[in-house]
Specification:
The chain is of the alpha/beta class and 312 residues long. It has ten helices and eight strands. The protein binds uridine-5'-diphosphate (UDP) and magnesium ion. Magnesium ion (MG) binds next to loops.
Length: 312
Amino acid sequence: MDVSVVIPIYNEEKNIPTLYGRLSTVFAGLNLSSFEFVFVNDGSVDGSIELLKQLSNEHKHVAFVDLSRNFGHQIAVTAGLDHCKGERIIIIDADLQDPPELIADLLSKMNVGYDVVYAKRKARKGEGFMKRQTAKWFYRILDKITSVKIPVDTGDFRVISRRVLTVLQQMPEKEKFLRGQIAWMGFNQTFVEYDRDERNAGDTGYTWRKMIRFALDGITSFSNFPLKMASILGFAVSGISFILMLYALYSRFILKVYEPGWTSLMLSVLFIGGIQLICVGIIGEYIGRISNNVKQRPLYLVKETNSPSKDD
Ligand code: UDP
Ligand code: MG
């Protein structure tokens, strides 16, 4: 198999026909010996899976993997990667924010001798101010606190080689932050720029909850900076507390000041209490993820597929 396209699907019934049409047109012009589209249904509650099954009945290059429930975008993509057979693998969103027409550019750039060609967003249309700003700042902060160069303004829309996929599958972590994991590998990576379109139809499947979780996965997987920050904060606050302690003793025994000092007392108790809780919380984020990995549960479960992987 030459090229596989992996497409995660969460409530995309309105986009699947257009997406399939545009993908087909692109691939008709590519002159490939063989290719497949691997659609992963991530627990959609609309008619997506029926559409996918119908497509796979009509076209033999369409595979579907139906997950047992909603596992989230990154895991859905991982499931697709486990089920695809291509030498070169394309990851693309189903909502047509990633234009399928760019695939030709991605592939031809890869032929020059790259293992990864990712698509870098020049402009983002139709996304709210908050989404653009949070994404912008998240990637810039992540870049500051990690030693891995994770490209900014880049999603998972990309083409990767089989060799990169094999390494990806050997990375055992349960928290998937694919763009970071792929950046971590090195090899020859480059990018093609594009204008990100608006979502074609339907609503985003990324709720704020999922976005925050995704951001925390990215940070904790690639940086211990928050842990260091917890200890630095601890030292700084202890330093200040120690000076205040000396002052309290001085004012009690030398100046003989007996005022009750309720405000300063409350402030310091609240301040130290807050810092402590934050630090415990940060440690908790890491411990929670360690515990998640120790449990060794399967990452996802497949309900039905017409393209079994070696583990099915
Ligand atoms: N998606 C998924 N599972 C989810 C959420 C999203 O498989 O729990 C898919 C979705 O169908 C789409 C891609 O992941 O193909 C990107 O999601 P979306 O467009 O909702 O995210 P956004 O572009 O708003 O960040
Ligand atoms: Mg989208």
